[in-house]
Amino acid sequence: GESVGLHLPTLSVQEGDNSIINCAYSNSASDYFIWYKQESGKGPQFIIDIRSNMDKRQGQRVTVLLNKTVKHLSLQIAATQPGDSAVYFCAENRRGTASKLTFGTGTRLQVTL
Amino acid sequence: NAGVTQTPKFQVLKTGQSMTLQCAQDMNHEYMSWYRQDPGMGLRLIHYSVGAGITDQGEVPNGYNVSRSTTEDFPLRLLSAAPSQTSVYFCASTRGLGQAGELFFGEGSRLTVL
Description:
The structure holds 2 protein chains of 2 kinds. By secondary structure, chain A is an all-beta fold. Chain A has strands at residues 4-6, 10-14, 19-25, 32-38, 45-51, 56-58, 62-67, 72-77, 86-92, 102-103, 107-112. In chain A, strand 6 and strand 7 form a beta hairpin. In chain B, the strands form 2 sheets. In chain B, strands 2, 4, 5, 6, 9, 10 and 11 form a 7-stranded mixed β-sheet that branches. In chain B, strands 1-3-8-7 form a 4-stranded antiparallel β-sheet, with no helix packed on it. Chain B is an all-beta fold. The relative contact order of chain B is 0.32. The chains are: A mainly beta, B mainly beta. Chains A and B meet through strand 4, strand 5 and strand 10 of A and strand 4, strand 5, strand 9 and strand 10 of B.
C-alpha cells in the first residue's frame, strides 16, 4: 500500500556537524513533500517543502533533496545546533488534497555537545 | 494572531463518555484538519474540511464526528470514547492554495480513555 516512511528512528549528531534525515515514499502519484519539526510537547512546525518538479530546495541551514527515481527524499541540516533536537517528519501531499497530509513515523534527532 | 488554539490540553475520560475537542484559528484559513498522533505511528488524518459547511473523512474517521459551521472553528466530537482513542490530537489549518502542505498546528490535546 501507500506509505511514507523513514529509514532510521533515531539520529545522534554532534553539535556543529551536518545532519541528514532520510525518508522513503512509495506512491508515484505524490507530487509535493514537506518536512516538519516537532519539539517535545508541541505541535509539528513546517520546515521546508519541495514539489515533484524540483530535485533540490534550500532554506536557512536546511536543504531538501528529492530523488523521484528511487522515491527518496532527505533533509539536510547544516551546522546542527542543540535547538535542532526534535522529531522530524516527512509528509506527502497529493495535488488537490490540501491539508490531507500523509506522515511518516518520524526520526528523532539528538544533538550532542 | 494566536494561530491555532486547541482546548482542552489534557482530558481523562471513562469508556463510553463523549466529549468535544475544540479548535479555533484566527488566520482566516479555509482548510482545517484533525490528526491523531500515537507512539511510533506518526500523525494520521481523522477528518478535514475545505471550508465552512464542508467536511470529509480522513484515514481514521471511525468514532469521531466533525462540523464546520464557521471558518474559524472546527470541533472534533468523540461519540462514545474507547481506550483505543487514547492519543494526542492535533488540529491544523492552512490557506490551501500554493503552499498546500504548510499546515499550522495547534499545541495538541492529550486524551486518555480509561
